[in-house]
Amino acid sequence: MNANPTVLDLTRRLIRLETINPPGHESECARFLGKLLEDSGFSCRIFEFAPGRSSLVAKLEGEGDRPPLCFAGHIDTVPLGARPWSYDPFAGEIADGKLYGRGSSDMKSGVAAYVVAGLSLARLSGRRAGLTIVAAAGEETGCEGTYDLASRRNVLGRAGALVVAEPSSNYPMLGHKGALWLCGKTTGVTAHGSMPEQGVNAIYAAARAVTRLEGYGFNVAPDPLLGSPTLNVGTFSAGMNINSVPDEASFTLDVCTIPGQDHACERDNLSRYLGDGVTLEALVDVAAISSASEDPWVQEVFEVMGQILGEQPKPRTLPFFTDGSALKPALGGPPTVILGPGETAMAHRTDEYCFVHRLEEAVAA
Fold it and tell me: pTM of the prediction?
């Protein structure tokens, strides 16, 4: 690819690199972006947390003593779903001003935008601050790539501010809820279905637990922007056949948290609430994040985006988690905005698309 690609060309190229998670296979994409940035003067390192699962960290040094700005996002995508697509999900086709493809909004357009912006910044002299670019694997299944980076010494460093380019229609968002996904299990004793008194039915215990959860309340005050935490029972599974007493049942919980909630405490609270007969295992543990709208850098972002969007932004948040959960604390807690060209409503959808005109807007921002 050209050393100075347009954001549209780069987005289409990234869409054509299939990185559906699972299994991911993000390494080729990470290496491709690393070569592009390295050829423009970035120092690039690839980190693999599992075979074929790699994240990229690219750094451009500044000439002053200011901490770097960090652009971040993920290069994995979700599966296609069962419904047929109207457009090839890996072709990057354009129709009626929309760019179609898996990851077009969530979030290869955002990755392309901050990479192209980074290539432009690399050509500027007199940069008072540096730039760190993170293109992470494994976000869709719990931010595995960024948590891996955060666990490594002397990899990320600190940042003065963080932009996570998740789909927001280029509207700056100040945070998102956390996600604590739990699997609850009950056990029993198997027996023939015609002699249930000889067994212990695990479904009854699980059903009682699930029914009780309908009345569960969080003893926390609502967040001014993110509101109250929520709990949803997502799945229920049990039984090996109709004429056996099941000796195991399981259900999954999606707990969406707000800043200030300790996930370990919430898990303990739920465990006590459900009682000794239910075990809870954490599947995903991703914290909520937020930034103050009064922060001077956030105000500067709002000013810039007001000119681009044609309206002055107001403090808003997103419902889904991002790599900011791992990166914000790892980078020293800098002010953070979630801002990218994709459409929030198009994330994970059949016939996913982003608007072409938002791509250049994001680069300019």
Answer: 0.94
